[in-house]
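Let us practice reading a record.
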Amino acid sequence: MGMTTPPRTLAEALRARDDESLAGLLSARPDLLNPVPGDITQLATRAGTRASVVRALEHLDKFALQTAEALAVAADPAPYGTLLGLLTGDGRDDGEHRDDAGSAIAGALPGALATLREQALVWGEDERLRLVRTAREILAPSPQHASPTGLGPTVAEATSGMSPGRLQEILAAAGLPATHDPVSAVTALSALFTDRARMGELLDSAPAEALSVLDRLVWGPPYGEVTPNPTPPVKWLRDHGLLLPVSTRTVVLPREAALHLRAGRAHRVPEPRPPAVEAVANRDPQAVDSAAAGQALLAVNTVEELLKSWNGGGPPILRAGGLSVRELKKAATALEVPEPVAAFWVELAYAAGLLASDGEADERYAPTPAYDDWAELPAQERWTRLATAWLAATRTPGLVGGQDAKGRALSALGPELDRSAAPEVRHRVLALLAALEPGTAPDPETVLARLRWERPLRGAAAPAGDTTDLRSRIALWTLNESELLGITGRGALAAHTRALLDAGPDGAAALLAPLIPEPLDHVLLQADLTAVAPGPLERPLADMLSALADIESKGGATVYRFTPGSVRRALDAGQSAADLHAFLAAHSRTPVPQPLSYLIDDVARRHGHLRIGAASSYVRCDDEAVLNEILADKRSATLRLRRLAPTVLAAQVDPASLLEGLRDMGYAPAAESAEGDVLITRAGARRTPPRTAPVPVPEGPPVPDATLLGAAVRAIRAGDTAATVVRKDAPESPGAPEATPGALPRTTSAETLATVQAAAMTGSALWIGYVNADGAASQRVIAPVRVEGGFVTAYDHTADEVRTYPLHRITGVAELADDQTA
């Protein structure tokens, strides 16, 4: 759709766009679709609201924002040449710009202007560029506030409340002819400040100290405080209009004078090009991939170890939600990592849907049923599940330990850790790393500089004492978490991560699989009661070995240590001494050491010698001497034991506490059932009810897909057709209210019925006003097909479908001036 005359409003400019351009606007600013505008005029009105404009400005890069700021301080409308001059200057270079700055700005300006036009922040032809009024109000200076460029108000704005006598004094001091017309006086003063030659002569006559004052104000802020008796330099500037009063104690440097001092530039340093991401090291890509794969395997094992430790029911949930500091410390100790790293692993398991609340009255965290499915997958697929969840999560573990707006501590798994900007920042950081050559480790500071250029207005307020905005902190956390998770290796992006970003989880798993060692089915037993696993173990072997021995050290090879307590743990799980001997013999590449065999036999011989039941609880043993020894031991006092029979002691504590107390005393008791059978206490497998992974908190409305965009554009076009269609004036009816321009048509019921029936017979289209069941009024263009039973069935050009309307909800009808729906 073309236009023969320049647009006079934003609505006209939008109406002149083609469907693809309108779809681009709705995609760039999805908030405009909620709900779908009824026509182009509604779309333009919504695009000019403050909330929508602020959101659009926040998505601009540095140079596009500088372009909008320059338009905000230019006259409205402004020609393209004026805008270019505000960005490049008037040629009086003061040495702060590079030689190629002007050409770089000239080359980048059309693209920045196209972005502003696409997002409906700027409209009009190149000779009459207009910034949307709301954006001008946000970015332009006022008598009370300076603009982001550091420029103050114009002479006309700053002198709007000044007396004519004071204006005459300024004109006289500046050597301008007197005039009794305030408008002429302001015009003359503005012309002086914009005349390069005359302004130069005026500044040449200024005292040196006055020029120093101007130097402090020229790049902003342009406001300064003055005393009732200002110093001579300030008085000279005030007398000559170079400082204009804002209040009794505040003066401002007018915009025209500041632009002269700036050599015509709106910004000290325009930034047409994004800063480059610089490298700190170039590493061998194969070494990077190997390091990342090793860390990926460690990440999978760490999450599994964490959830295994909470297998029988994890830590309790705080009343306000989340994990207590003490429980986080316990998890960090168990994983042998610092607390911030433990918080990351806990949050990652939660984001992946492997960890959740059990929903019980005494609420605790526990693995979900999805954890069991995840644990059965190959290591590479388990990693892709974790990495994909991390990329999409709005949970921000780096905030743990900080404080919220009310000064309350932020806890792991707490409710206040969602930051909607996190996924976008993570993807952007990884995209910057992916743009580098394989093996290149970037300088974090240059990554932050690039992110700030891309979204200069998106940084949220930082905590007190922290000068880094939220997006920058998330970017730094992203770099650290990427290394922990195996996204990067030695600071550079791994090949499997590039595949994850480009081809999805399957492509990443295919590249990662060859780099992960195959699970082993054996260990190496040693004479010092340790076993060495030279690599990852098959799941059944790892599960059994973790019950039989304690992990002493981790790394490329895991060292397990056998102790009386660990052996007893395996016996408590239902294994016999013979089972343990057979297991070790089957899975060890070295002979089973004699000390280990003796340890197993010794613990098994004493295991179950004592029997625990409920009295509150009791101890039963066929050897009376053992019971005498227990009674004589001072450590048993807390158990409150007394003899019921020669072979039975009763206790006033529960069976679990009695078991724990006797084990602490060095005995190896076993629990028994009411029938006298030994109770086997297998490793707990407490699970929550089925839970879904937490849904990321969206940042604004979601970006619509192509189908929705197409439907929205068609609806807006159809509504615009209904709103702007040329129609015949309906004949005035006696007693009918006078029509208001732009209002819904009003006709009597009889006139409505007659007009609709006539249109159905002739096949012509009508313009109607309609009020739906919710009371929402709209205008529509319909082609009636059938009228019966108080309803009209018609093809609705607005909705592009056949609909049926109750006649009593039609407020009025009007015939079209001609058939404009053909």
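A brief commentary: Residues 285-309 form the longest helix (25 residues).
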